[in-house]
Write a sequence for this structure.
């Protein structure tokens, strides 16, 4: 429940945009640039938000929405919302409670939490939260280290593996380069040892420590045969994140994956990459119902979740808003963001004539663009 201040105003933010504003005030400028920024001129960051802003839903009427359920099932995991927390590195940059707090909030909300390979807290400690966990991988030059991480994820009780495939090298994140961004001494890659753990704490002259660290660790030779290799070495459902074409979606299904995440990495990789929401219908048409299809990038409200479902997604990954909540209030801040999203989605499902998450797939959507310079608009 929202507390009320003496002035009669809500004491917590009432939208993700307000959480963002509040987070910006408490995070260091360099960390804020790392979290909120993208690559190049940040065209894809803006396009992700604009894709949702320009999409409209045609609601259905007289559908008896006296009872509305947001319950879902994502990659074999029961969820109270069609939402999972996206893999994001180094939560300790925004709050000392770090990933453990995010996982506890995910447990309370009943949504899966994806443990990032570059988490600042090891998966074994995060598992103590009791949350439903997925584990994210990047493809490492050290194949033995990849196998070890898969084994650790399985032993910790993770329910799915998510391989991010859109980082053969890190995108040119100009803000991080200008800032000479590096992790503070108390934040490091907790799943690794030695230089692999602390390599992102030292920035090269005129560069980003995170970029130099990933260049050393990540293997740019990742190919479809490697997906098959990974599929043969785990019993867990396998999710591939970073797909943006129907052709690649079909290749993924042929490689034995269980789910796709349609994603341009939040605009942090190829600047100018198409928003996931835009290509979502193409990918759904390509794979049909053979695999689950999730989407991320630009989701800032329950209305955005509804739009993603209407365009063909089974669910979404929520990224930056979770870090905004963590920065503002630790575990309670993440809980507040997820509670807000639940409230918004319940309302928007009812207003669109949907009693369940599944019914949202039958809604009709329209793309609408407006020119602020001329005042004209077109459907």
């Amino acid at each position: 429940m929202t507390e009320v201040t003496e002035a009669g105003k809500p004491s917590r933010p009432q939208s993700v945009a307000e959480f963002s504003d509040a987070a910006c005030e408490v995070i260091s400028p360099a960390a804020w640039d790392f979290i909120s920024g993208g690559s190049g001129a940040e065209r894809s960051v803006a396009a992700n938000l604009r894709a949702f802003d320009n999409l409209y839903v045609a609601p259905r009427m007289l559908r008896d929405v006296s009872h509305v359920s947001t319950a879902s099932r994502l990659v074999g995991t029961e969820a109270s919302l069609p939402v999972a927390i996206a893999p994001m590195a180094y939560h300790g940059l925004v709050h000392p409670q770090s990933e453990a707090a995010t996982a506890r909030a995910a447990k309370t909300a009943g949504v899966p939490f994806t443990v990032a390979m570059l988490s600042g807290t090891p998966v074994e400690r995060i598992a103590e939260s009791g949350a439903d966990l997925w584990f994210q991988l990047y493809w490492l030059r050290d194949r033995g280290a990849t196998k070890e991480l898969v084994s650790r994820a399985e032993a910790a009780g993770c329910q799915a593996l998510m391989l991010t495939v859109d980082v053969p090298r890190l995108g040119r994140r100009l803000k991080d380069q200008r800032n000479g961004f590096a992790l503070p001494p108390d934040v490091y890659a907790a799943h690794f040892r030695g230089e692999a753990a602390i390599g992102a704490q030292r920035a090269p002259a005129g560069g980003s420590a995170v970029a130099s660290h990933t260049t050393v660790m990540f293997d740019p030779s990742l190919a479809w045969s490697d997906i098959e290799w990974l599929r043969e070495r785990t019993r867990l459902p396998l999710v591939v994140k970073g797909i943006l074409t129907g052709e690649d979606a079909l290749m993924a299904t042929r490689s034995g994956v269980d789910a796709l995440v349609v994603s341009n990495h939040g605009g942090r990789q190829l600047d100018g990459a198409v928003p996931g929401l835009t290509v979502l219908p193409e990918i759904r048409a390509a794979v049909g119902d053979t695999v689950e299809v999730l989407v991320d990038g630009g989701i800032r409200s329950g209305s955005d979740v509804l739009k993603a479902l209407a365009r063909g997604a089974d669910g979404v990954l929520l990224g930056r808003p979770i870090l905004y909540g963590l920065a503002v209030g630790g575990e309670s801040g993440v809980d507040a963001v997820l509670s807000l999203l639940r409230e918004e989605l319940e309302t928007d499902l009812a207003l669109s004539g949907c009693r369940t998450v599944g019914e949202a797939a039958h809604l009709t959507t329209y793309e609408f663009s407006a020119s602020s310079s001329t005042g004209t608009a077109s459907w």
In short: The first helix runs from residue 16 to 26. Residues 1-6, 372-379 have pLDDT under 50 and may be disordered.
